[in-house]
Amino acid sequence: MTREAREIPKDAVMTRYMEGESLNSLAQSLGVGKARLRTQPEEWGVPIRGRAELPKLRGPVGWRH
User: Is the whole model's pTM more than 0.70, yes or no?
Assistant: First the structure.
């Protein structure tokens, strides 16, 4: 039995990722492995961010949208 590859919705993933959602969270919600999802933003021309960059997206501590 072979596993069928799930299509990853580029626009939805990129919007959520650029808004600060983690690759772990995205992979879990899409039902794909983090390793597979990790390659996608780079293939789409978006660099993978590190943990240090996340506060820049979310704003100062205690700040909420």
Answer: no
pLDDT at 40: 83
For the residues of 36-61, what is the DSSP string, one character each? HHHHHHHHTT-PPP-GGGHHHHH-ST
Rounded alpha-carbon distances, angstroms, from residue 62 to 29, 54, 58, 59, 65: 26, 14, 9, 8, 10
Examine the pLDDT at 64 and tell me if it is beyond 70.
Answer: no
Other C-beta atoms closer than 10 Å to the C-beta of 25 total 13
Q: How many CB atoms lie within 10 A of CB 55?
A: 12
In the chain, where the domains are located: 10-58
